[in-house]
Each structure stands twice: as structure tokens, then as C-alpha cells.
Amino acid sequence: MHSFLHCKLIQNLYHELKIDKGKSILLALSSGQDSLCLLKLFIDIQNITDITLGIVNIDHQCRQDSTINTKHIGNIIKNLNMPSYIYQLQPNQYSEAEFRDMRYQIYINTALRYSYDMIATAHTSTDRLETCLNNLLKGHNFDSLHGLVWKRKLYCNIDLIRPLLNFTRMEISWFCNYHALPIWFDYTNLHYQHRRNRIRYELVPYLQQYYQQDLEKHITKFLDNTYYDMEYLRQQTIKTYYNIKHPHYIAINYHILLRQHVNIQIRVLNLFLTYNGTITLTEQFINKVLKQLKNNTYSQQILFNLRLNIYQSWLYIK
Asked: What's the whole-model pTM score?
């Protein structure tokens, strides 16, 4: 039976993601409800879309039931007649960011080795809401509110896609219950030392009860409306950077930079230093450099073994 969610996924593939028939997609799965919903939907529509599928799963070994969970996933996929790749990370002390970086590197390596065009994750509209609130509360910049987008370039000719990005958790729960999918409950989702869990189970229900019942719908609308604003700023940043960068050396013309809007100044300087230095910069450092450039009081700065110097109208990295 094809439900309204099957139709929604097909609509997303062709209109939101603009995926051509005959493409190959590597499904990044866990055994949670979002992942199993993604797997079931893609299997059901595979003949319609003529898409080649593969499955990748990573056992992080960070829960006591990790090994049993991996066996559970193996039981799910063993009869699917589908290429599957299961990895296990060593149980060391990694931060959430480090886990995420390692996970995506494994996805990329697998896609490259076995010639997949895209990697699909099971992020939903609810994840989008939680990511927006989480980054907003951390005081991150405007771009971070759009941490989850439909499609982005992950590596060379490999795209990362999120086909369920307009699916709500309620819709997915209904689908999993209707089809009796063997969901594995992740008990760490109940641990409130993880910031996202407290947002999910306390902040979001509070906002829905006292401020906006259709919170997810309205936040999604806000993100859709501001996405093109963000993209415009990103494109202007890249355009300005290419216009002011030195043709031969690692440098930018800071005189031209200072004639731009302050938002573009910050973005271009951050792009210049991050791209050429592969480091993460603080807002305080960026503002300090800009202030000294404007006041013609710039002194040599050394940051993470990067030396910034000024010669004539150029700001150099040495």
C-alpha cells in the first residue's frame, strides 16, 4: 500500500531535490523510527523511481546495547537483497562534533568506494526545529539556524540529501506503527545532560502549550522564508572574496573590504582566514582585526601559527 507519505517522498525527490531516475543513493541508517521509515519508503518506491539503494550503518560503541543493536540492524537488512556496509568505531571518548565528523567521513569514503551519487539521512522537520532552537540558544550566527537543508554538496560529486525534511515526528510515528516496523529505542534520548533532549522533551512542549501550538509549522515557515536571505549573503560573500583576493598570494585587499557592509566584512574575513588557515575563529578575534584595520592601528597578529601582516593595501597570511 502506498500512503500519503510515499507520495510526499516522491514529490520531495523530484521537486525539492530534483533527483533524476537511475541515480544511486546510500541510505545512512540507524534502527530508530526516522531511519526505518526512510528505509521502508525507499524500498516501496524503488521500482517507481528506478533508484539504486545501499545501506550504511555505524556502530559508535557508546551505549551498552550497541552490539545487540547492530545485530538487530543486521537482522533487518539481511533479507533485503541490498548492498550494506556496517562499521564500528572504537569506544574512545569523543565529543559529539568529533563523532559527527568521523561519521560523515565514513559516509563519504563508502560512497566513493562503491560509486554512490548521494547519501541520504533521515532528518525530519522536527530535527530542523530542534536544530534551529539549539543554535539560537547557543547564540550562533544566522547561518547556523539553517543547519539542516534539503541538499548540499558533501564531497566533489557526492550530494547529501534529506528526503524527509518536511516529515513531522507524528507522521513518522504513525507510519512506523501502521507497518509495525521493528524500532529500537535509544535510551540515551532520555538523558537530559544532552542539550537536544531537554529541548525536545521540555522546551518544545512548553512553547507549544503556552506560545504557539503549531510551533513546528511556523518555525519551518520562518526557516523557508529566511533561507534565500542567507543564500544571498553567502553568494555576496563569495563574490566579494573573489573580487578582492590577491591574484598570486594569500591576501585580500582590505581597503576594498572596508567599503562593504559590516556583515560582508565579517563574512569575507572569516572566509579568508578559515579557508586558507583551516581553523575556527572566534567572533572576538574577527572584530578585533576589523577594528584595527578601520583605525589604521593594525599590529601583527599570530593565531594558531598563522601570521597576519599588512603591506600597502593587502592583508597577508604568512
From this structure: 0.85
